[in-house]
Here is the input.
Amino acid sequence: MSSSTDSPTLTTETTQLSPQPDTETAKPTKKITLKSSDNQIFEVEESVAMEFATVKSFFEDSPSTDTVPLPNVTAKPLSQVIEFCKEQIKFKANPDEAQKKKYNAEFVTEKSDKDLVDMIPVANYLEIKDLLDVLNQAVADRIENKSVEYVRSFFGIDNDFTAEEEAALRREHAWAYEGVDED
Amino acid sequence: MRKRSLKVSSSQHVDRLSNLPNHIIQHILSFLDAKYAVQTSVLAKGWRNLWTSVHVLHLNSNSFRRLGRFKKFVVAVLNKLNHNSTAGTFIFSYRGRIDDYLKKRVIYFATVHGIDHLVLDMGCKRPPVSQELLSCQTLKTIKLKNATFTTSFGFSKLTTLHLKHCLFSLVSNCFDFSDCLPNLSSLSLLGCDFTRFEVLKISGPQLLNVTIRSMWYSYGGLSKGCKVEISAPKLTFFSYRESHVVDFSVINLPSLQHADVDVFLSYEEENKDIQCLLKFFQGLYNVQSATLSYSTIQ
Here is the structure.
């Protein structure tokens, strides 16, 4: 017997539309230029750029600009963030929750720890809430049930406790330690 | 506490996440089971109290091998958060038989901290839902598993009510999900025991979707001759699955768009069941899509 508590979903008749014709050939869409802190140029469709709340409000304030400088964002995480948002636009046009979930899961699974963590401040700065949720969930999944030492090295945290302070804190929270997984 | 600034340009920088603002770290910690959220307090001085401001508090007995240790843990966490909880969502899941003290502490926390979304699995034995919870008027979501209702209830702000494996043991021949839930938009009943009632009434001015599943009488779901009255002006989605055919004696669903029905027909009363189904589908007008599947049970 099934035991899912999820909200109801339609299980049948989800019409599988054939892939949308390439919008670039269908009609010319407005492009927006983004410039990363390491001076790389990204040309993206307006619909994708508008997913970035920061870019959107930049355009609302100064509509005549053609290039948006992103001083806090380097090229690599930015290109990954753009890739994610392009897919989300497709799901907006043609909603399919199952496919979207699958894509989001694959998007984070194939990323290294570093790529994942590097994208978080970018998603935060550009105010892309959906991506931030996906990334933060993925990071939580990777550190859950790991030792303190593992989590420190995952995040690159310098331990500024003295050995005595740390031992005292562990004693204070002794009730939270039982059966941590091997790293 | 170390000052955190939003500085990301040096991606080769070693100290990665600690450059993130606290609200991002609290967001990450909100996805963690509380056991691991608490353990982050020893990462560095700046992390010491971050776990206490999570938005979602997850307490799950499956994170502990021994239930005694879990109980100690829950009491310690709830004591720590007693005066300054920032959690809007509280998730508590227990395996085994919960004792009265732990149940009391959990319900107290859930009802005095202005929690919006409450997800509770009370473990085996389906303990009764206490009056404190039933009179809590701040809740917007209740997802409750393995509990017993001994009185009726009313929640003025509640928009989502999902009940799984819950027993309704009220002295009455009719159970009514109606007037007392004025803002309810989503109702889900899974494998709940309504066998004491001859009539189940579901109505609500704001109801948008209703799901009833796994309510076959042999498994203690709806009684065999139960009449179901469903009346909701805004309802767009209705699902009735993995259950026997019941008599939908009142159907008033003018906005319904999707009906999803998957039922067992009983061998002895097949004709009667088919009559009931016909009556049900006649009651659905305006419907845009309907799925019907059934299997015959001897």
Summary: Chain B has a mean pLDDT of 88. Chain B has six helices and 16 strands. Helices of chain B lie at 22-29, 34-39, 67-80, 100-112, 131-134, 270-282.
